[in-house]
Design goal:
By secondary structure, the chain is mainly α. Helices cover 48% and strands 11% of the residues.
Length: 347
């Protein structure tokens, strides 16, 4: 579904009839085209011919307030651009009640996360929620970005699935290319700090994500927290998967100085080296939709699992000690049998 400019124009024409400067239909059409960012109705009509057809089920509109105000002024003597913007918004809302309308002039005051949550229709939503959401870029035949399709079909969105489906008709939510402008424009880029990142302009102070404060170097070698490595990599993952990918208005220089990075990377390397073949095999089974897959997910989440385990007895003894009922223990036996089978057949 997409916004039909002629319908909006007819509605603008009707709504303006009672005002001091009623708009003729032809002028209303020009104004609505301007509100959608086109310099003329002809430019809008031309663009429709080159655009790739999109299943546009995410209703999201930015009214170009400045362009609309200047068209309204030159065509029909509207001196109050804000009032004209309100008329156009009113017309859009009457025809498309689910639409999210932004005004280009007000964008600076809309936080990025709010813009995304309004698009999806989830409110409130936090940056962490967006961590795993996927999107694809939709281009026309000339390689110009037409919009983005956000896919909320992964398990962590299950609790919101019914809501998203009701609002958008599917779990794929379309956002027009202008959406990126909203996200980019709506906030000044703030610095994003990993755990252990040095504060800009304050040498010797480092961000602690556990305390949510900047702390002196000694804090990171004190007994205050034990899990610097995990906190560092958590922030890293959030940055890689969510912030950089969603182009949120945050920045972090690639050469940022970090007081725990060296230690965190060394710990992870040592942890990787100590893993046995079974633990590595288990990691590859986490996508399975059966009892071995369930067991694999439990094992990968379990920080106490003996990652260097090399015998069937040790695996079963551990599973029995933490989940002493039939299902997990049987699954462990099946897993070990499959692991051996694959290992032996690959030798
Ligand atoms: Zn701390």
């Amino acid at each position: 579904m997409s916004i039909d400019i002629s319908r909006v124009a007819r509605s603008v024409c009707d709504l303006s009839a009672g005002s001091t400067s009623p708009l003729k239909l032809s002028h209303a059409q020009q104004c609505v085209a301007a509100a959608f960012g086109f310099k003329s109705l002809a430019a809008y009509q031309a663009s429709k011919k080159i655009e790739t057809a999109i299943d546009d089920n995410g209703m999201f509109v930015i009214i170009e307030s400045d362009l609309l105000a200047s068209r309204g002024h030159e065509l029909a003597g509207w001196s109050d651009g804000a009032a004209l913007t309100d008329v156009v918004e009113d017309a859009i809302r009457r025809l498309y009640p689910d639409v999210t309308v932004h005004h280009s002039r007000r964008l600076e005051r809309v936080p990025a996360v709010l813009a995304i949550s309004e698009l999806v229709g989830l409110n409130p939503i936090v940056v962490d929620d967006l961590d795993e959401a996927r999107y694809e870029v939709i281009e026309n035949q000339r390689g110009e970005v037409q919009g983005f399709r956000f896919n909320f079909d992964e398990p962590q969105w299950t609790q919101h699935a019914a809501h998203i489906r009701r609002r958008h008709g599917s779990l794929a939510v379309f956002a027009p290319a202008s959406f990126l402008r909203v996200v980019k424009k709506c906030q000044m880029q703030e610095r994003f700090y990993f755990h252990g990142d040095e504060q800009e302009g304050q040498p010797g102070q480092f961000f602690c994500r556990a305390c949510d404060l900047f702390q002196p170097a000694a804090h990171f070698s004190s007994a205050e927290h034990q899990d610097h490595g995990r906190r560092y990599f958590d922030a890293h993952r959030l940055w890689d998967r969510a912030i950089a990918r969603w182009k949120l208005p945050l920045r972090r220089p690639s050469n940022a100085h970090n007081i725990v990075a060296g230690r965190a990377i060394e710990e992870r390397r040592a942890g990787e080296a100590s893993r046995g073949d079974f633990h590595r095999w288990v990691e590859r089974q986490t996508g399975r939709d059966d009892r071995v897959g369930d067991l694999a997910k439990d094992i990968m989440r379990d920080e106490k699992f003996p990652r260097d385990v090399m015998t069937r007895e040790a695996v079963i003894a551990y599973v029995e000690s933490v989940a002493p009922w039939n299902g997990p223990v049987e699954a462990a036996k099946v897993a070990w049998r499959e692991f051996l089978g694959e290992r032996d057949s690959s030798i």
